[in-house]
């Protein structure tokens, strides 16, 4: 189980809670956001406890004092953090729909001989189904997330808003047009 990471106002408390809970339940992990400056300093402490991490870009509006304002900087930090996580030997989730981040991950694991069973890609249901199928055909592990509960809709909308192209991918998945569209499982 991974404890989700909300806005930066909750990051310190979330990490502290995860550390406390992991002392009794070692299967608990957390999410980190590549767009926060602090994440690079948070990861070593989490790894020291054996914590499994879900790496995402981050979807909350944050001030430039705490988060990278430019997408290119977020992407560069995402790749840097992905390398740290995958080199750790702990099982992590690489959460992205971004083909560039996926290619960077695939290149890193290939160059460093990291087994495809040592991590997983993670994506939201209905977004980039074509990419989900491609990854599984290539032998990568993939976890597909489905938001649920009373706050599922705001969560889903934030994911769509973090990258406007996600909305296009989602809408395309609603209209069957061939073997690469529609639900991943039939």
Question: How is the topology of this model organized?
Answer:
Layout (H helix, E strand, L loop, with lengths): L1 E2 L7 H14 L4 E5 L5 H10 L4 E4 L14 H17 L4 E4 L3 H13 L7 E6 L4 H9 L4 E4 L6 H11 L2 H10 L12
Parallel strand pairs: 1-2, 2-3, 3-4, 4-5, 5-6
Helix pairs in contact: 2-3, 3-4, 6-7
What does this 3D model show about the protein?
The chain is α/β, with parallel strands linked by helices and 186 residues long. The chain has a single domain (2-174), classed as TIM Barrel (Alpha-Beta Barrel), CATH 3.20.20.220. The protein has helices spanning 11-24, 39-48, 71-87, 99-111, 129-137, 152-162, 165-174; strands at 2-3, 29-33, 53-56, 92-95, 119-124, 142-145. Strands 1-2-3-4-5-6 form a six-stranded parallel beta sheet, with helices on one face. β4 (92-95), α4 and β5 (119-124) form a beta-alpha-beta unit. α3 (71-87) packs parallel to α4 (99-111) and α6 crosses α7 (165-174). The two termini are 26 Å apart. Mean pLDDT is 86; it is low at 179-186.
